[in-house]
Design a protein that fits this description.
The complex is a heterodimer of chains A (about 400) and B (about 70).
Chain A lengths: L1 E9 L4 H11 L4 E4 L14 E3 L2 H4 L9 E5 L1 E5 L5 E5 L5 E4 L1 H14 L3 E3 L2 E9 L2 E9 L2 E12 L6 H5 L11 E10 L8 E4 L9 E8 L2 E9 L6 H11 L7 E10 L8 E2 L2 E3 L15 H20 L7 H9 L1 H15 L4 H10 L2 H9 L3 H7 L3 H4 L2 H8 L3
Parallel strand pairs in A: 1-2, 1-11, 2-8, 5-13, 11-18
Antiparallel strand pairs in A: 3-7, 4-7, 5-6, 9-10, 10-11, 12-15, 12-16, 13-14, 14-15, 17-18
Chain B lengths: L4 E5 L9 H5 L5 E4 L2 E4 L9 H5 L5 E5 L5
Antiparallel strand pairs in B: 1-4, 2-3
Classes of the chains: A alpha/beta (about 400), B alpha+beta (about 70).
The complex binds flavin-adenine dinucleotide (FAD) and iron/sulfur cluster (SF4) (2 copies).
The site of flavin-adenine dinucleotide has 40 residues of chain A, from α1, β3, β9, β12 and β16.
């Protein structure tokens, strides 16, 4: 089989269907493919996302994929200090990604895109020194998909961009290994997400409880991927040490998340890389859905322009615009990650005590200069040369 | 030179999450919808994948070096 489209998008997670939808809306032919037999399954996610993305990226607020509305977050330090951030209004939601991803693909299809599950991209097709399309397999049937523009939205594996010659390599320290149970759990305010920090709890990362129901949550962990112990080991240890019964497990979710190493060149000729494949994830908390939507929006804008003006060199503007906007912000967040991973358990206790909830939110989003300046004046920071120099790295 | 290894998967532990393929510097692992695949000729024996697997599904076997 051999097909021809204006655009082929590999991977129907978050970034892929946003691009397919936007490009189809502009009237171009696009094929969105995913190797999964059921788009969205299994999930590899804690499913938390800001309430702002629905308006911003024109996604319906559909109760079929919203498990629970969330009003804030609670952070726990290793010594047991707590920091609560609670809004009057809904600040985020816990999705049902199996439904959400499938619906995003549905919106793409409704806008005019073709969508094909259980279709795995195997390699790029090279012709006359150019990349002419994708060699794929639908079930066991080989398919050649020719396209003017190829989008690699294939998640952490990032195989298609690499086969097209885009360098998406990042060192192992720039990834988190994650393990998660969707399980019954009680005793945590189900209106907040809960995060535990500590070098013995989750080296470089954190443990999370993201409530999907009054008594059910995604309970997971991320740790530095170059750590010799497994994420699974640390999560089970945390559950055991906290006496949390873990015999009501509905799902086990596994994944590796990029937390740094944003890809420099996001475009090579007619190939673009987006989302986890481009390592476009918040390095502090490992959330990448909103980032994938943002990058997908920028990429689709330039894809449409390039097709309209029949000028593929316009695609380079995606790299430029992403780096000037979200890339710049995420670089700042990466700086914070590099500092926080040097904090001792004592430091964590101190910062959780002296920071306000609003401060913590600013730090995680990259807008932290004022918070850091204020911290530098705190007596317990002033007294420690190490703490001072760590914080100064951020200014 | 690090010891040359063959990376082996414990299929009963593996979730086909794709993480090992993502961290491998040389595309020596591919994770298909239907299974995990290793390409010995591309592997540089760095062991990054073994550390990164969230469930410890990967291990190393020494590779016989033919002189
Ligand atoms: C345990 C865990 C918890 C997380 N929690 C959160 C959270 O709470 N909030 C948040 O915002 N983010 C979270 N993330 C990160 C988030 O899941 C990702 O950043 C997001 O899914 C990235 O979207 P994407 O479109 O780039 O890639 P993905 O959603 O990974 O989609 C990529 C798709 O490409 C397909 N694919 C791959 N290779 C091929 C191929 N060769 N051919 C065809 N199809 C292919 C895959 O099957 C997949 O469907 C979490 C990640 C993990 C692992
Ligand atoms: S990282 Fe582990 S669980 Fe994931 S695909 Fe590789 S071997 Fe399997
Ligand atoms: S040992 Fe290194 S090169 Fe070999 S498969 Fe693992 S990550 Fe790839």
């Amino acid at each position: 089989m051999s097909w021809k489209y204006d655009v082929v998008v590999v991977g129907s997670g978050i970034a892929g269907p946003i691009i397919a939808r936007n490009v189809a809306k502009a009237g171009y032919s696009v094929l969105l493919l995913d190797k999964k037999p059921a788009i969205g399954s299994p999930k590899q996610c804690a499913e938390g996302i800001s309430i702002r993305v629905f308006d911003k990226y024109d996604i319906p607020y559909d109760k079929r994929f919203i498990n629970r509305e969330i009003y804030g977050a609670k952070l726990y330090s290793p010594g047991g200090y707590e920091l609560e951030l609670r809004y009057k209004e809904v600040s985020g939601v816990i999705l049902e990604r199996k439904v959400f991803d499938k619906m995003l693909a549905h919106y793409a299809a409704r806008a005019g895109a073709d969508v094909l599950a259980r279709t795995e991209a195997l390699d790029v097709i090279r012709q006359d020194g150019k990349i002419a399309g994708i060699r794929a397999k639908h079930e066991d049937e080989p398919v050649e998909i020719y396209a003017d523009i190829i989008v690699a939205a294939d998640g952490v594996e990032s195989m298609i961009a690499r086969k097209a010659g885009i360098n998406t390599y990042a060192p192992p320290h720039e990834f988190d290994s994650s393990y998660e149970y969707e399980m019954l759990i009680e005793g945590f305010d189900p209106d907040l997400i809960h995060l535990w920090f500590g070098n013995e709890i989750a080296p470089r990362g954190y443990v999370w409880v993201f409530p999907k129901d009054e008594d059910r949550a995604n309970v997971g962990i991320g740790i530095a991927s170059d750590h010799p112990e497994t994420a699974k080991y640390y999560l089970n240890k945390w559950l055991r040490e906290n006496g949390i019964p873990s015999r009501k497990i509905l799902e086990i979710n596994v994944g590796v998340v990029p937390v740094g190493g944003f890809v420099k060149e996001l475009v090579k000729d007619n190939v673009l890389v987006v989302g986890d494949a481009a390592r476009q994830v918040n390095p502090m908390h490992g959330g990448g859905m909103a980032e994938a939507m943002e990058a997908g929006t920028i990429a689709s804008k330039w894809i449409v322009k390039a097709l309209e003006e029949e000028n593929l060199s316009l695609l380079q503007n995606y790299t430029k615009e992403w780096w000037e906007t979200d890339g710049k912000r995420l670089e700042k967040v990466l700086k914070v990650r590099r500092v926080t991973e040097k904090l001792t358990d004592e430091d964590l206790d101190l910062f959780i005590q002296i920071l306000s909830g609003a401060d913590a939110e600013k730090i995680a989003s990259g807008d932290y200069a004022e918070v850091i300046k204020a911290l530098l004046k705190h007596p317990k920071v002033l007294m420690s040369r190490r703490r001072l120099s760590l914080l100064k790295e951020l200014l | 030179m690090p010891e040359r290894i063959r990376v082996v998967v414990n299929e009963d532990r593996c979730y086909l999450c794709g993480g090992c393929a993502g961290v491998c510097p040389t595309l020596a692992i591919e994770v298909h919808a239907s299974g995990w695949e290793f390409f010995q000729d591309k592997c540089i024996s760095c062991r990054i994948c073994i550390n990164a697997c969230p469930v410890g599904a990967l291990s190393a076997e020494p590779l016989e070096v033919k002189e």
